[in-house]
Amino acid sequence: MSTNVFSPKHPSDPSGAALLRAVRAIEMDASVTEEVEACPDAVGEILLDEAARLNSIGKTQEAVVVLDALIHHAPLVDDRQYAAIQKLDHLRGEDGQVSAEAERVVAQLLQPSILQEGPAHLLGEALEEFGDLESALTCFNVASRKYLSGPAEDLEDAHLMLAFELAGRTRVRKQLGYAPDDFDIALNEISGPDRSLTRGMRGSGEGLDGSVFDDRDFDGVEPPLHNPGTGKALRVVCRREEFETAREQGVVKDTGADPGSDGGADAYFRYVERGLREQARLNPEVVWYLVRFSVEEIEDYAHRSGGDPGDDELQAEWGEVVPPDDHRASVWPPERNDPCWCGSKRKYKKCCGSAANR
Ligand SMILES: [Zn+2]
């Protein structure tokens, strides 16, 4: 077992020095190297993000080099596992055939007491897609451990709605033809048998009817939403195509980028997604609407109302007049297989909704 690099007991350099050495040997964007030097404790997370970014722009070889460095040297077991699971995407041929290396990695991850809960969720989704349902179920069971440890009736609906790993478990159990257990039944009850097959929480196109909250307290100093059961909230974001312009003109001020790094649109949208998930955890009753603006629209509105186009309150005010069925608005989170809300043209589950975005 000691040879299993994914084991929590695998000896790794906890200072991260070995990983930093490996990173320095890789040719990488100066902004990433600077970010790593500035926040050495977050080196694993920074490099996982960078690998995902490289992959999304077609630099798959470079992505694999970063992932290999993580697999062998990341101090945190979760990061080693996340990296290996991200790499699985590269180990699949055009025909979807799973390579021998991928099989070996999955077998190592699936050894008893190896897989951590977060990576288990991600691996479950990957294996479900490969069609390896039995192994996917093993993963979802690990990922859902915190829910499965008590009786199903103790789980509140609001928590069930956000238990995406538990929904994955139910989905796979159904595909395997298992009779519904208490957890499957509880999930089906809150969302209907079809809904549980997708993601949990879903607004069904209710109108905003004026009861909109803005996101001025978005940074979580204080939960801004106090309307359990009927809450609707609004998050105004920039259109992807205009992110650079919006940042340059100060229309988007909080890009989620670490100081000194050159965060682009992907980093911004992943940051928005993480904020929404955090808000959804704090206030699970609230249905979130995303409204996307163009720089021109916001600047026009600011001009008319005499405010600052970069002001959060002004943007929220603008968003409130956008009808929920407008093409600029959508309910968050989208369905797993729907296009991502960020406009990347990738599936939500492969983009901002990926379990790797945490
Ligand atoms: Zn996205």
Structural features, described:
The chain has helices at residues 17-24, 30-38, 43-56, 60-73, 77-88, 100-109, 117-130, 133-143, 145-148, 157-161, 164-175, 182-195, 243-248, 265-282, 295-305, 312-320; strands spanning 232-238, 287-293, 329-332. Helix 1 (17-24) packs antiparallel against helix 4, helix 3 runs antiparallel to helix 4 (60-73) and helix 3 (43-56) packs parallel to helix 5 (77-88). Strands 1-2-3 form a three-stranded mixed β-sheet. It has three domains: 17-139; 144-195, no CATH class; 232-350, no CATH class. With 358 residues, the protein is mostly helical. The chain binds zinc ion.
Supply database-style keywords:
3 domains; single chain; 16 helices; mainly alpha; 48% helix; binds zinc ion; globular; 3-stranded mixed sheet; 358 residues; 3 strands
Give the strand content.
5-15%
Structural class: mainly alpha
* Helix and strand element order: HHHHHHHHHHHHEHHEHHE
| Portion of residues within helices | 40-55%
Number of helical elements: 16
Would you report the number of β strands? 3
Provide the list of bound ligands, each named once: zinc ion
The biggest sheet, with number of strands, parallel, antiparallel or mixed sense and barrel status, is: 3 strands, mixed
Summarize the structure.
The protein folds into 3 domains: 123 residues; 52 residues, no CATH class; 119 residues, no CATH class.
Draw up the topology in text.
Layout: H1 17-24, H2 30-38, H3 43-56, H4 60-73, H5 77-88, H6 100-109, H7 117-130, H8 133-143, H9 145-148, H10 157-161, H11 164-175, H12 182-195, E1 232-238, H13 243-248, H14 265-282, E2 287-293, H15 295-305, H16 312-320, E3 329-332
Parallel strand pairs: 1-2
Antiparallel strand pairs: 2-3
This protein binds zinc ion (ZN).
Residues 269, 340, 342, 344, 351-352 line the site of zinc ion.
